[in-house]
Amino acid sequence: MKNAIVTGGTSGIGLGVVKMLLAKGYRVMSTYVGPDFTEKIEGFTPVKVDQTSRKEVYGFIEKVKKEFKTVDCIVCNAGLTIRKSFTETTDDDWDKMMEVAVNSHYIIIRELFSLIPSGSRIMFTGSQMGLHPHAMVLAYGVTKSAVHALVKNLVKEFEGTGTTVNAVVPGFVMTPWQKEKPEEIKQNIYKKTAIHRFAEVDEIVDAFRFCIDNPFVNGSLIEVNGGYCYK
Questions:
Q1: C-alpha to C-alpha distance for 21 and 2, rounded to whole angstroms
Q2: Are 128 and 170 in contact (CB under 8 A)?
Q3: Distance (Å, rounded) from C-alpha 225 to C-alpha 113?
Q4: Which helix (H) or strand (E) element contains residue 47?
Q5: CA geometry: angle 32, 35, 37, nearest 5 deg
Q6: Which of 101, 152, 154, 225 is most buried, most CB within 10 Å of its CB?
Q7: CA–CA separation, 89 and 184 (whole Å)
Q8: Residues 6+ away with beta carbon under 8 Å from 63
Q9: End-to-end alpha-carbon separation of the chain, Å?
């Protein structure tokens, strides 16, 4: 049986990816924050981890090493947005967003490197905000740009192993967080998207599935944005 890790795997895209991996026969361990995840899913182990804390990230890594002899798939999905203006964003805000999206994932992959067999899959959740400047949260866009760069650079570290590294780069997705947006804001986003709606989680998960199933997809930023045109 293959083993997988998904960060931020108890809601939205992360939970969708977890269920897809379980259906493929993986055992899955996931990080999460927030309220306790009480749903019992066979083959799935959720672990509460604050990825802004290096201590907790290293604790999670040790748990993975005890539970899994190999790590055949890593999905770096967790991210953090602190919605403040450019001048109001503090050093601590910046550091926390970078720590979750970039630093913690770099550390996880580095520390588990010896457990990753040839032909494995490493995937990240990127963002359109990392490709196109966005006025809402500058720091979030920069973290996702760094995620995209990390994908490209990790390809060289796994060269010759058959292990692939890719990012799925969604536009706006109908996650629980997006559902809470005021209707006026949602309609404004719909107008900027050629499909005139948000993506469903399963439509984004299909892109992760594609990266798993196709061994020649490597170093790619796969945009799934419905034709978001920023008009």
A1: 10
A2: yes
A3: 32
A4: strand 44-48
A5: 65
A6: 101
A7: 26
A8: 29, 47
A9: 47
The pTM of the full predicted model, rounded to 2 decimals, is: 0.92
Buried b (16+ CB within 10 A) or exposed e, 192-207: ebeeeebbebebbbeb
What mean pLDDT value characterizes the chain? Answer: 92
Q: Which two tokens stand for residue 153?
A: 């650079």
Judge whether 130 and 145 are in contact, CB under 8 Å.
Answer: yes
Q: How wide is the angle at C-alpha 142 spanned by C-alphas 128 and 160, nearest 5°? A: 80
Distance CA 134, CA 31 (A): 28
CA dist 137 and 122 (Å) reads 27
DSSP β-ladder status, 44-48 and 73-76: unpaired
Rounded CA separation 165/129 (Å): 20
| Closest-CA residue to 208 (of 117, 124, 131, 143) | 124
Backbone angles phi, psi at 155, to 5 degrees: -55, -40
**Lowest-confidence segment of 86-90, 134-138, 152-156 by average pLDDT:** 134-138
Largest CA distance in the chain: 50
| DSSP secondary structure, 60-124, as one string | HHHHHHHH-S---EEEE---------TTT--HHHHHHHHIIIIIHHHHHHHHTGGG--TT-EEEE
Amino acid at 208: F
Position 193 scores a pLDDT of 80
Tally of residues, the chain: 231
- How many angstroms separate the CA atoms of 160 and 182, rounded? 48
